[in-house]
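Issue 218. Parser rejects a valid record. Input:
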Amino acid sequence: MIKTVMSFSLADGWRVATVACVTETFVMRPATPADRPAVTRMIQARCQWMEERGLPSWRAGVDELAGQCENPDGDVWILEGTEHGVAGQMVVQDQGPPWGWTDEERAEPALYLSGSITDPVLRSRKPGTLMAWWAVDRAARLGVPWVRRHCHCAQVASYNLTQGFELVREEQRTHARLFMMARRAERLDMSGLVRTATPYPPGSE
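Output the parser choked on:
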């Protein structure tokens, strides 16, 4: 069974994004220190996937990335499958970096996404897209008007476009070119795809 979740606009017209609904369902929940071994394995699998394709990997930073599970601020989230286990990790914060956004943009409430890493074994399930759409829906439920993110490579920026994000601007930093991207928050039908382990404030459901 295929479930149509949403449509989004790209430069070449309207397209419809679909996600296959299979037996396994996912939950987004705050990371805990106990997640570190599983997250380490997931990141290592992603590094191998990148290296096999001649892409720069995060091999040297695996311990640091997995160590985010121990972040006491509660802004590191885990995408977990009922069968697969840990499928993704993403940082969700209400303050963005001090670069890339204008003063007016920084003054607007927003959720800022960073550090999105997923298990390549689940590529057909689009875990990165599920996490992004979950954040868009979460922002709307919380009354936050924007979801923002940035990335360092054009391929990732293109992938983010398929999730409904728009390129706001490109910014050259000392050693990297950044793609600053944003999407308006909106309620999405995530039923049967992703649920949230922690309750929302009253009236946001």
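Fixed in the parser; the record now loads. Residues 1-22 have pLDDT under 50 and may be disordered.
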